[in-house]
């Protein structure tokens, strides 16, 4: 899961720390741009062999590092059960 | 076309004639055919002239017969013949065939009410000796530049800020607050310059300066009022053809040959077709082409040229050409810039000048008037997002980006998430631009303690209550007409790039009648997702199918990758700690991290926002070098000789 953190830090030139916690809303802080968001989604789908549906994406799931981690973990777990 | 400069309220020791001459010489590229000035006791104004109308008699500055008014004028008033006829009917007498004299008489007869009658791109300075008052004015779209600066008790003004380099005791200082705003909104706002104490006179405004002080007035607020609405599509297309024919006809008025810049898109192709029909022969056309096929539009340029029979000249631009010319082009642009695409236009004007052409027409302004940009479709989609079902959203998203290879069908879910985040307004008055400004937030991180980079633009929209009655798309248009169009397309990539080599650019799509017509047609016969559909169809039988059916293709040039590959010496301005420290308002850590990524990673891993921020950083460093530190920039071969002195009128009272 630290791959996600590394991807965001590299893609958006930020560093998560006390002043920039992992639950920061990346849209509201102006970190997330449109191209970067699409890149992030592609990265997660590729890296964790998951697919996001449009319905999921209207639920504000990918706005902070901690939320992204939780969402990805849940989807990976669901895949494991299904498999 | 010309450049103007001058000052009022001067009480220094230096000779005013010397100062005026030196200021004008600094902008001599705008008017290589001659320099003229008039000198009063504490004021001076003058012009450098590119002779286009009444070449023998059109020297500047000019005065009325009484010698009360003196005018220095930059630009073209395309309806000057019609205005002249009206003025003659009111008893005015003329000595020349020039639009300069028409403007002078128009001011004398109608005062500031004359401004709304002018159809053109212009900026002028007029001194009234009786009232000891200076008038400055600028055209409604900000086609031609005009900067002012306080200097001691004096007010300086000039077409380009570099004229102020010639004023004794004047110093440039980069303004961190303005720069944060410029980085956030991608371009300077109408009054911003990027330098402390230097302002632009905003478009559509005039100002008066006398002993009582300075006042600023708006004469042409931007509106999208419906004009005469066509009954059906056939009539709409007919009106588009008529209005554009008239707009091009007015802009062919010239005593020198008029050429056309062909981009490969529909807008400049229409202009070229109309110029061909109106002149009865094809014009000379000019284009830039690129080695990089993803940026190149040569097939469409050649198709238009072949269909019309134009004498076509293409300038092939390699990434290294951009790197070589960038410092000089930034010096001409004078403001921070978010992309490199103005550099090829700077080089194209040199080729145009060498081909003996002084005036060109271009397609600029069509996308703003006829809703050509993706931004307008995004705004339409976002403003109705919450009321749409999933199927409609998917279908609209699929139609949104037909030309962008970095988004595809596989990204529909990601785009859905993105639009969900931007479905309601969080920045008052700026809804349409909120996604776009996310890139700007990234760039604004270059400025240490930037505060809110959108405070200035939020204040600007708050000053315009008329925006509240506009639709979301009209608000988006309003913002484009106040930011990207004047702040980059017409200036850095337009006027400054062309006039760097004495070429005047004219834009038929900026005719007020064209905007009025477009406003009455937009979204009336379609949903706007097939951008500029009626405009394209209006000229479908006159132009090649590959151009008519081509979707909007943003004009771009190689960005950061070009600099990473060539690694020019001037990159030391960014890579040396001591050089970078001179830009003391920057967050040096962020700047270094950005450079490290942009200059080492493959181009495919560099995002738009990083390219954009790198170009901002590089242009800020080059501007600091040239204006603040007053150091030489690479590219000496581009220096041009001073214009010959044509006129010097000395009105000073002798002790």
Salient structural properties:
heterodimer; A: 83 residues; mainly alpha; Non-ribosomal Peptide Synthetase Peptidyl Carrier Protein, Chain A; 4 helices; B: 655 residues; alpha/beta; Glutamine Phosphoribosylpyrophosphate, subunit 1, domain 1; Rossmann fold; 7-stranded mixed β-sheet; 6-stranded antiparallel β-sheet; 18 strands; 40% helix
Describe the structure.
The complex is a heterodimer of chains A (83) and B (655). By secondary structure, chain A is mainly α. Helices cover 58% and strands 0% of the residues of chain A. Chain A has one domain: ACP-like (Non-ribosomal Peptide Synthetase Peptidyl Carrier Protein, Chain A, Orthogonal Bundle), CATH 1.10.1200.10. The longest helix of chain A is centred in the last third of the chain and has 18 residues, at 65-82. Chain B is 40% helix and 15% strand. The longest helix of chain B is centred in the last third of the chain and has 21 residues, at 608-628. Chain B has 655 residues and is an alpha/beta fold. Among the domains of chain B are: 2-172 and 642-650, 4-Layer Sandwich (Glutamine Phosphoribosylpyrophosphate, subunit 1, domain 1); 233-366 and 490-548, Rossmann fold, CATH 3.40.50; 569-633, no CATH class. Classes of the chains: A mainly alpha (83), B alpha/beta (655). The A-B interface holds A 10-13, 27, 30-42, 51-58, 60-63 and B 390, 393-394, 406-407, 410-418, 420-421, 435, 438-439, 441-442, 445, 590, 593-594, 597, 607-610.
Count up the helices of chain A: 4
Q: Strand content of the residues of chain B, in percent?
A: 15-25%
Number of separate strands of chain B: 18
State the assembly state of the protein chains. heterodimer
Q: State the low-pLDDT regions of chain B, or none.
A: none
Task: Give the count of helical stretches of chain B.
Answer: 26
SSE blueprint:
The complex is a heterodimer of chains A (83) and B (655).
Chain A: H1 2-12, H2 34-48, H3 54-57, H4 65-82
Chain B: E1 2-8, H1 16-26, E2 34-39, E3 43-49, E4 62-63, E5 69-77, H2 80-89, H3 99-110, E6 120-128, E7 133-138, E8 147-151, E9 154-158, H4 176-185, E10 198-200, E11 205-210, E12 213-218, H5 233-251, E13 258-261, H6 266-279, E14 284-290, H7 298-308, E15 311-317, H8 319-333, H9 342-354, E16 359-361, H10 366-369, H11 374-383, H12 390-400, H13 412-421, H14 434-444, H15 455-462, H16 472-482, H17 484-489, H18 491-499, E17 504-506, H19 512-521, H20 533-538, H21 545-548, H22 560-566, H23 572-575, H24 577-581, H25 588-600, H26 608-628, E18 645-650
Parallel strand pairs in B: 2-18, 13-14, 13-16, 14-15, 16-17
Antiparallel strand pairs in B: 1-3, 1-9, 2-3, 4-5, 5-6, 6-7, 7-11, 8-9, 8-10, 11-12
Helix pairs in contact in B: 2-3, 4-14, 5-6, 5-19, 8-9, 8-18, 8-22, 9-18, 11-12, 11-16, 14-26, 25-26
């Amino acid at each position: 899961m630290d791959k996600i953190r590394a991807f965001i830090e590299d893609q958006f030139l930020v560093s998560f720390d006390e002043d920039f916690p992992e639950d920061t809303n990346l849209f509201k802080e102006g970190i997330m741009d449109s191209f970067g968001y699409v890149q992030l989604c592609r990265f997660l789908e590729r890296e964790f062999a998951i697919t996001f549906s449009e319905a999921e994406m209207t639920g504000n799931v990918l706005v902070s590092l901690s939320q992204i981690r939780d969402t990805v973990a849940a989807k990976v777990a669901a895949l494991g059960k299904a498999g | 076309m010309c450049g103007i400069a001058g000052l009022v309220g001067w009480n220094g020791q230096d000779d005013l004639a010397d100062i005026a001459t030196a200021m004008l010489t600094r902008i001599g590229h705008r008017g290589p055919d001659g320099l003229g000035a008039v000198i009063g006791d504490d004021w001076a104004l003058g012009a450098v002239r590119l002779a286009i109308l009444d070449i023998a008699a059109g020297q500047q500055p000019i005065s009325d017969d009484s010698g009360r008014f003196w005018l220095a004028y930059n630009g073209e008033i395309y309806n000057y013949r019609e205005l002249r006829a009206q003025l003659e009917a009111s008893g005015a007498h003329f000595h020349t065939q020039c639009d300069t004299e028409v403007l002078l008489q128009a001011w004398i007869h109608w005062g500031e009410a004359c401004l709304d009658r002018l159809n053109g791109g212009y900026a002028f300075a007029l001194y009234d000796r009786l009232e000891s008052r200076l008038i400055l004015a600028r055209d409604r779209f900000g086609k031609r530049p005009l900067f002012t600066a306080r200097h001691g008790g004096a007010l300086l003004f000039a077409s380009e800020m570099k004229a102020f380099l010639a004023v004794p005791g004047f110093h440039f200082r980069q303004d961190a607050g303005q720069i944060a705003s410029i980085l956030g909104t991608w371009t300077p706002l109408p009054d911003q310059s990027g330098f402390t104490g230097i302002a632009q006179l905003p478009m559509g405004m005039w100002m008066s300066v006398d002993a009582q002080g300075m006042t600023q007035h708006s004469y042409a607020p931007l509106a999208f009022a419906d004009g005469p609405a066509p009954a059906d599509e056939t009539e709409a297309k007919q009106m588009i053809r008529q209005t554009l024919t008239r707009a091009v006809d007015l802009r062919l008025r010239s005593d020198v040959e008029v050429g056309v810049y062909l981009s490969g898109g529909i807008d400049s192709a229409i202009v070229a077709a109309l110029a061909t029909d109106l002149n009865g022969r094809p014009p000379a056309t000019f284009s830039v082409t690129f080695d990089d096929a993803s940026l190149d539009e040569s097939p469409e340029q050649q198709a238009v040229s072949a269909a019309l029979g134009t004498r076509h000249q293409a300038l092939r631009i390699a990434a290294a050409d951009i790197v070589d010319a960038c410092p000089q082009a930034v010096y001409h642009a004078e403001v921070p810039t978010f992309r490199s695409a103005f550099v090829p236009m700077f080089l194209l004007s040199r080729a145009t000048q060498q081909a003996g052409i002084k005036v060109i027409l271009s397609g600029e302004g069509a996308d703003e008037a006829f809703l050509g940009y993706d931004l307008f479709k995004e705004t339409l989609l976002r403003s109705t997002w919450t009321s749409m079902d999933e199927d409609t959203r998917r279908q609209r998203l699929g139609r949104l980006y037909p030309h962008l290879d970095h988004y595809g069908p596989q990204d529909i879910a990601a785009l859905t998430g993105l639009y969900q985040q931007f479905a309601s307004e969080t920045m008052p008055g700026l809804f349409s631009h909120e996604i776009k400004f996310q890139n700007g937030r990234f760039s604004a991180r270059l400025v240490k303690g930037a505060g809110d980079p959108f405070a200035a633009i939020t204040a600007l929209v708050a000053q315009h209550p008329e925006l509240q009655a506009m639709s979301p798309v009209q608000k988006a248009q309003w913002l484009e007409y106040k930011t990207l169009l004047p702040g980059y397309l017409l200036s850095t990539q337009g006027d400054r790039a062309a006039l760097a080599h004495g070429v005047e650019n004219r834009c038929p799509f900026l005719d007020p009648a064209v905007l009025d017509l477009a406003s009455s047609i937009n979204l009336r016969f379609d949903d706007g997702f097939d951008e500029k559909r009626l405009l394209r169809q209006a000229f479908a039988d006159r132009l090649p199918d590959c151009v008519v059916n081509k979707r909007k293709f943003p004009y771009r040039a190689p960005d950061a990758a070009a600099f990473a590959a060539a690694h020019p010496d001037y990159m030391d301005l960014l890579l040396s700690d001591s050089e970078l420290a001179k830009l003391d308002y920057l967050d040096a850590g962020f700047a270094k991290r950005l450079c490290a990524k942009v200059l080492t990673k493959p181009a495919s891993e560099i995002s738009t926002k990083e390219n954009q921020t790198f170009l901002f950083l590089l242009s800020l460093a080059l501007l600091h070098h040239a204006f603040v530190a007053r150091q030489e920039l690479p590219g000496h071969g581009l220096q041009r000789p001073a214009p010959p002195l044509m006129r010097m009128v000395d009105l000073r009272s002798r002790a």
